[in-house]
Amino acid sequence: SQQGEEDPQALSIQEGENATMNCSYKTSINNLQWYRQNSGRGLVHLILIRSNEREKHSGRLRVTLDTSKKSSSLLITASRAADTASYFCATDGGGNTPLVFGKGTRLSVIA
Amino acid sequence: SQTIHQWPATLVQPVGSPLSLECTVEGTSNPNLYWYRQAAGRGLQLLFYSVGIGQISSEVPQNLSASRPQDRQFILSSKKLLLSDSGFYLCASPSDSSYGYTFGSGTRLTVV
Prior knowledge:
Structural class of chain A: mainly beta
Helix content of chain A: under 10%
Largest interface: A-B, 23 and 27 residues
Oligomer: heterodimer
Number of helices of chain A: 0
Largest sheet of chain A: 6 strands, mixed
Number of strands of chain A: 11
Structural class of chain B: mainly beta
Distance between the termini of chain B: 38 Å
Helix content of chain B: under 10%
Shape of chain A: globular
Strand content of chain A: over 45%
Order of helices and strands of chain B: EEEEEEEEEEE
Largest sheet of chain B: 7 strands, mixed
């Protein structure tokens, strides 16, 4: 079953602008992860935030996590055309339980 | 570094034909393997996962089956494909370095 729900489903911005994508989930988590998928390719792991963390940075990526609201956001600053891709959140319930992915946000960055 | 090989990259099969997709993993110490399916423009649906040889857990009852004949090999099969089996099939394994998953490049299956 899908737990993460990304919002918006699609986002189109100009190069240089910031892109914000949101993810909501339903059950308790061990960590939450964000992935990127270029068209027709496999997913690539971007960043992981643990349930006891509130914010994490990696290069132009900033992830926040609010466990009380069961939500996370991914911010891409100073976007580039090469950031055009689909972005997915995935929740990890811990142990051997598989990741549960959301439906994704399709980001288009226009040069 | 960890690498996941999937083949073929694309496949067009008629309804009622059998299916065999193979996934092999290199460079990891984690035995867990996963098959996900992605319908066009949709998220990933977990189909099967395996924690070791011969150990398969099915998440969605359907026309597909999986096997783990060797530690580094995970196979997705069907005896008779349905139109609804079309999609993008991805194999994944936990990464040793990032705590996330490493994915293969996927197989795009079109059932006609």
